[in-house]
Amino acid sequence: MPAVCAPRAALVALAALAAGCGEETPSAAPDAGVAGYVWALPPGFPEPSVPADNPMTEARVELGRHLFYDARLSGNGTQACASCHEQARAFTDGRAVAEGSTGAMHPRNSQTLANVVYNATLTWANPGLVALERQIVIPMFGDAPVELGIAGHEEAVLDRFRADPLYVDLFAAAFPEDVAGDVDPVRFERVVDGLACFLRTMISGDSPFDRHAAGDGEALSLAARRGMALFFSERLECHHCHGGFNFTQSTVHAGQVFPEQPFHNTGLYDVDGEGAYPADNTGLFEITGRPEDMGRFRAPTLRNVAVTGPYMHDGSVETLEEVVAIYAAGGRLVEDGPLAGDGRGNRYKSGFVGGFALTDGEKADLVAFLESLTDESFLTDPRFADPFAE
Question: Is the pTM here over 0.85, yes or no?
Fold first, then answer.
């Protein structure tokens, strides 16, 4: 990469991270907030963590919003971050697995960006990837698979933004210290900083469930209330992996000394009768090589889950009803094909996925509760919308 766009140590570590072998040592939560920046937090939500070397400012957020929606950020100019993260789908894409700018298919499902600022780890199964500034470089420069495909086109991509007066102004406003120091702010380090600041603002917490929790007695239907009781019961044990304010145990926020970073095997596969998952999706095992980590993935937030299907790390489950059925069965039986096997008996399966019996009415109630986690205002909030469509 040319010197003009040489990134910080986070970007230098790209090759190792993209290969899945990079590891970032977790530390205490970074400094929270920045003087002059005001968070719009839902009631009860903790202050997000912000790294000291990329403070939140409105100008950085606005730059990041433009970059997020701009296809010129891809090597061939055909795909933006928003291509795989659509606001109406809570910043997922509705596909089983993501497709990159060159047509390469990712082995995993595009995760929601809702409340990504609170994620203790930032991909499906890499415990060392804990900073947005590090994660963002992977879709930008990675080649296994190619996503935005910037590698090999670095200067061409930057020149697109340098030639646009709008971006000259946006970068200058976001990073006046660069301009004052006679340093070109249009460089990938600053692209990453702007995107990270924008992503940190994507906070969702105004669902019917949230309004119910705040005291609105009419916010939840009777079915959703019954489903909520099931969800938080020891009979189903859903809350053990999807608990807390963000409906995931993998959470970090300002002031939290020890972030939680759990990963779970949910019994989706057992392709060899010995606990194996498909070779391109072995989960945490890909990083650690430990047999007990086979098939372990991070439990994603369930906020807005009704609009983020298909589900699971590989998008192999189409509907919430199917998800409930799999957990009720204690895993999934794949009867035929190359992935055939009985995940219900996977030796590495989490103890929380033991199965349970539900009536048809209870299944409907549980789905009603999951649907009550949809934050319609988040899906249409103009703060997160495409600035080029305004």
Answer: yes
7 and 146 together in one domain: yes
Q: What is the pLDDT of residues 191-239, one digit of tens each?
A: 999 999 999 999 999 999 999 999 999 999 999 999 999 999 999 999 9
Q: Which residue has the higher pLDDT, 14 or 113?
A: 113
Looking at the structure, tell me whether residues 325 and 260 fall in a common domain. Answer: yes
Q: Which of 123, 384, 147 is nearest to 250 (CA)?
A: 123
- Which helix (H) or strand (E) segment is 189 a member of? helix 188-200
The answer, yes or no, to whether the previous bond of 310 is cis (omega within 30 of 0) is: yes
> Structurally, how many domains does the chain consist of?
2
Rounded CA separation 199/113 (Å): 7
Looking at the structure, tell me whether residues 130 and 268 fall in a common domain.
Answer: no
| CA distances in angstroms from 143 to 4, 127, 162, 189, 318, listed in the order given | 22, 21, 25, 19, 28
Cα–Cα distances (Å) from 116 to 10, 67, 253, 376, in that order, read: 18, 17, 11, 17
Q: Which residue has the tokens 């990504």?
A: 116
Residue 221: which CATH number?
Answer: 1.10.760.10
Co-location of 360 and 382 in the same domain: no
| 191 lies in the same domain as 313 | no
Same domain, 352 and 282: yes
Among 75-89, 185-199, 244-258, name the one with the lowest average pLDDT. Answer: 244-258
By residue range, what is the domain housing residue 28? 3-204+378-389
Q: Say if residues 148 and 140 touch (Cβ distance below 8 Å).
A: yes
